[in-house]
Amino acid sequence: MSVETISQTPNSFRNQPDERGHFGQFGGRYVAETLMPLILELEREYIAAKADPAFKAEFDDLLEHYVGRPSPLYFAPRLTEELGGAQVWFKRDELNHTGAHKINNCIGQILLAMRMGKTRIIAETGAGQHGVATATVCARFGLPCVIFMGATDVARQAPNVFRMKLLGAEVVPVTAGAGTLKDAMNEALRDWVANVHNTFYIIGTAAGPHPYPEMVRDFQSVIGKEARAQMLERTGRLPDVLVAAIGGGSNAIGLFHPFLDDASVKMLGVEAAGHGLDKEHAASLAGGRPGILHGNKTYLLQDEDGQIIEGHSISAGLDYPGIGPEHSWLKEIGRVDYTSVTDKEALDAFQLLCRTEGIIPALEPAHAIAAVQKLAPTMGKDQIILANLCGRGDKDIFSVAEHLGVSL
Amino acid sequence: MSRLAAAFAKGRPALVTFVTGGDPTPDATAAVLDALVEGGADVIELGMPFTDPMADGPAIQLANLRSLGAGTTTAAIFRIATEFRARHPQVPLVLMGYANPMTIRGGDWFAAECVKAGVDGVICVDIPPEEDPELGPALRGAGVSLIRLATPTTDAARLPAVLDGSSGFLYYVSVAGITGMQQAAQTSIDEAVARIKASATIPVAVGFGVRTPEQAAAIAKVADGVVVGSALVDLVAKHGANAAGPVKELTAALAAAVHSARKEIA
Fold first, then answer.
1. The pTM is what?
2. Testing the interface with B: which of A20, A22, A34 to mutate, by most B Cβ within 10 A?
3. Catalytic: B27?
4. Which of A75, A183, A324, B225 could serve as a FRET partner for A211 with CA atoms 20 to 30 Å apart?
5. What is the average pLDDT across A130-155?
6. Are A220 and A249 in contact (CB under 8 A)?
7. Which residues of A touch B173 (CB under 8 A)?
8. What residues are paired with A391 via a beta bridge?
9. What is the C-alpha R_g of chain A?
10. Is B99 on the interface with A (CB under 8 A)?
11. ipTM of the prediction
């Protein structure tokens, strides 16, 4: 660590963002004027909700009895043996109701929406996991729900589209652009601008205008808070390394944030390298640079004129040309390391976990597992890696079969 | 008097027209801009294309895609602006677009390019007053007007922040929504313009959803300017490289309606 880095190290890594929603130079509120008053109102309401014991009690109750938390902390013996190095542990957020971590955030946001008196919910979705989680909480609380989903994703995620419809949501296919997650987010923002008076936008990742990155992080931090307590209880110590996949980065920030001030704990965020960093990929930190999109300043895949470049990943949930602003900040100050793994490496890791542990992971955490596969053999057997198993793979079996040349 | 100030000091309401730069091609834009001027537009807004125009409706979204598909770069936009300024020394030209293409090389770079190209003002859709440091100081330092948007959700408490640091004119977005969709009720526009004009020292132009000379005339009775965009962009979409004629025709009809709106009252 250089002298310069030390001098810039803050007293705590957990007190971001500042009052204007900035994480260092990242974050902020880059939205159209129509949305600004609502964003400010949301911030006020969120601050009030955080201080309200009744809000927290309802959130905790729903997480326990509806989502099924706490999720288990699981030691993976056969994977550990196969990799021949550090002990591999998983935070089992794939066991949540709806099969991924996304529901944690949706519970928090819909409670806030109702607190604000909003009567209509919109959301964007890529792979469909956030759409399903949003449709789920809307059904649970009886609010109408409109999900914007890129037309390309609608075609390749048919089971999740059906799930959302079963849950009573209207799914709007977005044909603009490449018809993927970023286009769905554009369309959701357009809807929101036109319906600000009654509509709450449940953003699915720790990105967008302030206070979303902070709010989503706080709701997802239940992952890291539980994992930290569970690890201490089970092993009497903290893990040596945390590993999590990153699209927008909500499962990763949810795991990392409660550990940020534990100096002994290293952290590794894993971006999607797609076909390779020199080809089509979705690794915003590795292959992008800072810019402004969807309400925040963060690392983006873009050309020299600031035009946004489509991301590519085998995982529809990682297929986004940006990343949450707190990750951009954590990268820049060096608290978290970031790496990337390719589609092929993720596909191999997907099968490895199926074979060794009897767990079919989603393609998103398969990226984290691929990074664990590289990291564990370089570490001692007394060391601990904790990876976030943020979603289960049921939704992915069709695309995995296709990639493996199997017709179902 | 600046070109923008002069455009609003002609003793009648001003017609402000928008087209997307580089649509359908960078080379075809000059003829469309000339048609706007010949038709009688008082202020020209030149849209900078962006891959993710999240405040725009289908018409301008497609125009952005056509423009980018034809290879329009930021350099091409400034070339179009520079050539426009050479042909039309007196007509105010405003760039309108999104934050990322405007700030990616830094606010100072962008402001300096605006000065070189003879651009009078800049409208950035997604930089609210809260993020003013991104572009505002650079533009003001370079003498380029930062034209902000006010909307139906901009309440009295917030309006001073929107006006602070704005110049040229204030762009009142008449509907909470995206470009080119429904028009607001005339009574709500009348009330909003009256409210804003009570605090604004700069002219107030009203846009979003204004498509016909009749609508434009009704707004011109109360506002200092009327902005028309999507209806013109639709003509470029329909006629492509041959759009100049139809664009001039619609502009002339709009200009006649706007410029004479208050005479009808008298």
1. 0.96
2. A34
3. no
4. A183
5. 96
6. no
7. 33-34
8. A100
9. 20
10. yes
11. 0.96
